Amino acid sequence: MHSIGEILQLEHECKAEGTKLGVETLKYSTEVAALENRIKEVTLNSRDEINHKDIQLSMLQYKKHQEEMKRYCEERMAREHKQEMQQHISEMATKIQAWWRGTMVRRHLGPFKVDKKKKPKDKPKKKK
What we know:
Belongs to the DRC9 family. The chain is mainly alpha-helical.
């Protein structure tokens, strides 16, 4: 069997090993916590970078769509203006043609001449 001195020495070694184990466990826990915090920071930073890149990409797409819409609106306005001008020109040409035709009819010119071969119609006599 073991003597009391050996038992005390073994207990002392066990306590020392327990204390050493407690210190190492505390050190390990501290390192693990620090590494977990570092991982969280890196993860958050990478998420922030990803979000920032997504935001930049979205802004570029927004600007591109805005430019596309602006260009389309300008083209549509130009097309409408051109159509209105064509309509106005057509109406004015019709007015000029009507005025000219009226002038020709009133002055008996062109195809609206009075034929001299035809007799003028006799006026009906008034009955008394």
